[in-house]
Amino acid sequence: MTTAPDFRTDPPLLDFPFSWDGTRVPAEIEDLRAATPVRRVRTIAGDEAWLVSSYELCQQVLKDDRFSLKDTSAPGVPRQYALTIPPEVVNNMGNITGAGLRRAVMKALNPKAPGLTDWLRAEAHRLVDLMEADGPTADLRGAFCEPYSAGMHCRMLGIPQTEAPAFLRSLDIAFMNAPCPVTGAKINWDRDIARMSALLDDPATHGLMGELAALRDDPEYAHLSDEMLATVGVTMFGAGTISTSGFLAMALVYLLTHPIARDLLRDRPDLTGPGVEELLRVNLSIGDALPRLALEDVRLGDVEVRTGELVLVLVEGANLDPEKFPDPHRFDVHRDNTADHLSFGGGAHYCPATALGRVHARIALEVLLDRLPDLALAVPPGQLVWRTGFMKRIPERLPVTW
Q1: What value, to the nearest 5°, has the Cα angle with vertex 149 and ends 144 and 150?
Q2: 127 DSSP β-pair partners
Q3: What pLDDT digit, counting tens, does each position of 283-292 carry?
Q4: Which tens digit of pLDDT belongs to each residue from 349-359?
Q5: Contact yes or no for 320/58 (Cβ under 8 A)
Q6: E strands of 242-381, at which residues?
Q7: Per the CB 3.0–4.6 Å rule, which of 63, 141, 181, 389 could disulfide with 347?
Q8: Are strands 310-313 and 48-52 parallel, antiparallel or unpaired?
């Protein structure tokens, strides 16, 4: 005889993600972390998953190699959302390492690369000059965050700055969270791969893409096709730009809605470094969680996660866990453990661009707060429009005045 489910002990599935509003922590998080830090949810794709919201358990998932990123793209497994890139590209750094390209990529991601910090500072000043000439008001995301991040990635890849708009235009679709395949994603992917492949033959190409192009003459790398090399460039531009510009935009949202924190970093530029670390901890840009697939049965807190089940690491839940970060909603640049946040992931898939991301944000904030000391939102916070169905929480526009 089949036993009917006991709904007193089997709570209904929660729809995930929660709120897209980046000015406030979703109301569900604290209750979940306290009562059911491993909770069953329904994803955008309509599949079931375990949402993990405490720091301890999130860290366990990220460090345990029985939870796989690569296998989240396997056919037939539960999904967060439809893939917008080829399945084999999901584990990008693993693929880069397997192809023998990790050294070249890590060299390109080094924030101590000759001239990089000077370039970032000059570019930040250039963009502020343009804003001042046109404003106020200005859309800080469109006029500063995106071009600043895209420009850095063009420089890192060694492709002309004029290429930035062509690759940027794909990102609104490439990073969508949709329940079913997105027609435009493959169209844009194929176009961008063809464009990056052509840049391999451009004599002006240098930087990382120049190094990758030179490998085609090395018999040891005969297994690499132009498409594989172009994939490195396209994915690094896309993932890098959307992550750094998204974090920077959300860091600015936080400062502009918390003027005490803004004034502290403006008046004490020597605290910008630890300030960036706290902004990484409290920022809400990672609204969709980090996916992993269980490769075997694993005990996670009070829950037995079964082989083949999807697990979602809720970064904002971990980063605001009072068990790890006392008084977690307080912006405190003097915390001893701020850098323990999970905003760059963890374990084998810890983001390789952490140092670069920190430098990128620090210089941007130093320049903006120095040049525009009265920087403020030009609209009430409640009037900000938030993008939905996207891998990052970002405002569609960030109107500011100064």
Answers
A1: 105
A2: none
A3: 999 878 999 9
A4: 668 789 999 99
A5: no
A6: 290-294, 298-300, 303-305, 310-313, 376-377
A7: 63
A8: parallel
